[in-house]
Amino acid sequence: MEAIEKDTSLTNIKAIAAGGYIVGLKEDGTVVAAGGESGAPDVSSWRNIKAIAAEEVLIVGLKEDGTVVTVGCAGGCGESIVSEWTDIVAIAAGRRLIVGLKKDGTVVSTWQNWGKVDVSKWRNITAIAAFNKIVGLKENGKVEAVGGHVYDEKLLKDIKQPTCLVP
Question: How far apart are CA 25 and CA 11, in angstroms?
């Protein structure tokens, strides 16, 4: 941790994400990453990034043009799948999955392409979160949830702002 605290590249940060690495989104749309036993994956070529997400072995960036870039999971987290995504306005990552919220309020997920969950029918979603489940907040305050250990959705009604969900 001491090396991360002294890392001078972690300045002018406007957003952060953490998983197996500490990731910082800089004011100029570039990304820096630190940590990990053998160091963080190289994100030095990333430009025009507006949001970041991270999980244990994966770093995800949302570009200003609505496309998604990833690094770190060596093909096992859907990097080739997300390279085809467009019109993404928000991202989430967790347990080797990537979730994207599209401009039209629909959701895409790498898990869906692997046949694990189906979010293709979700509509009017305004926020997303992920870990070993995918959660979507609808415009009307209701919650959609799929994946491992989904809690009783009746308890999740009328949520206005996403909060941390503990698995």
Answer: 10
One-letter amino acid of 68: V
167 burial class (0-12, 13-18, 19+ CB within 10 angstroms)? Answer: exposed
pLDDT of 121 > 80? The answer is: yes
Residue range 124-165, pLDDT digits in tens:
999 999 988 899 999 999 999 988 755 555 555 555 554 544
What is the tally of helices (H) and strands (E) in the chain?
A: 3, 12
DSSP state of 21: S
| Mean pLDDT score, 88-92 | 97
Round to whole Å and give the CA distance between 3 and 167.
Answer: 30
CA distance 41 to 35: 9
Q: Residue 68, SS3?
A: strand
